[in-house]
Amino acid sequence: MTQPDTPLLSIRGLNKWFGAYHALRDVDLQVARGERIVVCGPSGSGKSTLIRCINRIEGFEEGSITLDGLGTAAKGRAATREVEEIRRQVGMVFQHFNLFPHMSVLENCILAPMRSLRESRATAEGRARELLARVRIADQADKYPGQLSGGQQQRVAIARALCMRPRLMLFDEPTSALDPEMVQEVLDTMVTLAEDGMTMICVTHEMGFARQVADRVVFMDQGQILEVAPPGEFFDHPRHDRSREFLGRILAH
Amino acid sequence: MTRFLAQTEAAARPAPDRRRGLRQILAEDFFYAPGATVWTLVLVVLLGLAAWTLFDWAVLNAVFGPTGTLDASQACRAEGAEGACWAVIGDKVRLILFGLYPFDLQWRPGLACLLMIALYALSVQKALWRPALGVIWALVLAAVLVLMRGGVAGLAPVGDDQWGGLPVTLILSTFGLGLAFPVAIALALARQQRRFPMLQAASVGLIEFARAVPLVVVLFMASVMMPLFLPESWQVSKLLRVLIAFTLFGAAYLAEVIRGGLQAIPSGQYEAASALSLTYAQTMRDVILPQALRIVIPGIVNVFIGFFKATAIVVVVGIFDLMTAAKRAVADPLWQGFGIEVYLFAGLIYFVFCFSLSRFSARLERDLARDRS
Prior knowledge:
The complex is a heterodimer of chains A (253) and B (373).
Chain A: E1 9-18, E2 21-31, E3 36-40, H1 47-54, E4 62-67, H2 76-89, E5 90-93, H3 105-115, H4 121-134, H5 150-162, E6 168-172, H6 180-195, E7 199-203, H7 207-213, E8 216-221, E9 224-229, H8 231-236, H9 241-251
Parallel strand pairs in A: 3-7, 3-8, 5-6, 6-7
Antiparallel strand pairs in A: 1-2, 1-4, 8-9
Helix pairs in contact in A: 3-4, 3-5, 4-5, 5-6
Chain B: H1 22-30, H2 34-60, H3 69-77, H4 87-98, H5 107-123, H6 131-149, H7 166-192, H8 197-212, H9 215-229, H10 238-263, H11 267-275, H12 280-295, H13 297-310, H14 322-329, H15 339-371
Helix pairs in contact in B: 4-14, 5-6, 5-7, 7-8, 7-10, 8-10, 9-10, 10-12, 10-13, 11-12, 13-15, 14-15
């Protein structure tokens, strides 16, 4: 059921441990349709873990994460099916791209639509070429990932995720592994995506990007959400002590 | 610090010619110092002597003819015949190659051998590595069985106790490894996964058993002990039992090689596949295994070569393979004492197969290294 007034994504009372280490502590977050969230915070604060829990690449011990009502089953077949459905609807872009190196760019893009959405090769290929054109990389469709620059690979990774027609996109530090001169081309692609109305959650240190596109900035430290605010307020008037400390450190240089 | 500013643009120039002539190679690699000169000369003399001795024995003084078993045998034993007796090969070649298979029907094992060799030649073409190759394997192996066993399509039936020589060696390695390969993938995946602990334990148990027990012991168990314990109606031929033992051994060794490849795949590949909602089976088939198998091709070829040669061990349980056939050939009183020639011939056949595989592996490593660019 799609109800415009309920949030698309709802995280309630989320707790996760790595062994004895308490990695996420009582995390609550609602994300509305079309909303753009930037998650920031010092390294080890749980930002990546949080978004990896959303598509269940990481499991969690307590709390719930629902995507439009999906994700309530606890165990067994129903839960497995729900996870598959959530992953179909949530696209993810990784820090290290994680393209499949033995497949061409085009094959990378059509694999999941053909396997998971059971689309025909022609349908999948048509949309893949469209999306590759949208990330301005259509001429590289037959190349292998190893032949592309980091920035190009990351744009392919974005196109690959979009080929599943996701309702929500997760970005896990998408520009952190890039050479400086390639950061902008990836950010531009993400800005275009945001302008087209995609719901996005981005873990990133690119504060310029956060100011430009984010509706809300989420600041995390030690597994906890410490502050949530619109970017203007967050950057200019951070309320929490540790937000101020963090911003002082990253904006100092 | 003084300031530097480039005044000109450095244009790219072609690389210098790095090729060397024969004279240069000799001067730089063989005669570059007095000591090197001495060693080069000593080794040339030694190698020359060895080559000459071999040539003298194998060609100059060798007895090639005459045809007719008795004449040939006498020619080889004649006064002054000090060289190799190749006549024994001419006389025994059919026995060495095809064992006790009915003489008039030996075109059938011959054709079966050619089919299997053609199958190898196809399988080493990288461009043909697609699912259809599995179908071709199944078809060729079925054809080999039909040719060897007969009993259909007007072919006279021949029991596998009459098979022998090269086709048995090829069948043991081809069927053994062809069956072992899919089993090995299943074992490696079962050992790697964490979801079904019993399946994992069974896989570990089987692999560790096969690695800890000598193949010879298992062969004896398969050929001698198994018939004692199994009911009459369960009895299968000795060749089949030995083949099963080979398959399990090959699968265990291959599984460990393949597991090494699986471990080399970064976790990001699994995560990307999961994020795209691929199932476990899809992830393995489309993403993980194609990469993992590619990484361990040298290891896989190594196991293949090892097992091809290890088939010679079945001589101890009386399976009539190439090695047994060679032994049988020199057991003939007429040809006693000419074992060297016969074993050299059998060794040459093993060498041709194993060396080809080894060359193929080297070529493949080069190709794949280039692909990864």
